[in-house]
Amino acid sequence: MENQQRKVFFFFVSHLLLLLRASKMVLCFCGNVVVVRTSWTSQNLGCCFYSCPKMGSKCGFLGWLEPPMCQRSIVIILGLLRTINSYEVEVG
Ligand SMILES: [Zn+2]
Fold it and tell me: What global pTM score does this model have?
């Protein structure tokens, strides 16, 4: 069980790293490297999107990285978040 949780945790981290790497190849309308933001609210859980790194600029660049997730994915992600939280408790 311990080993299984570790596998899930590293899968999740590697997925985040892939998202970060992908974001470096996208430029917004004002020529800046976009940032990937993830919505963790219950209605848009796990929705990743590109946006302009300049907060409040008129650039308005917005691109969805993934379509909104289905209910099943949300359940899986909530489980992953709980796993990560438990690791954080162990570490610090
Ligand atoms: Zn911009």
Answer: 0.41
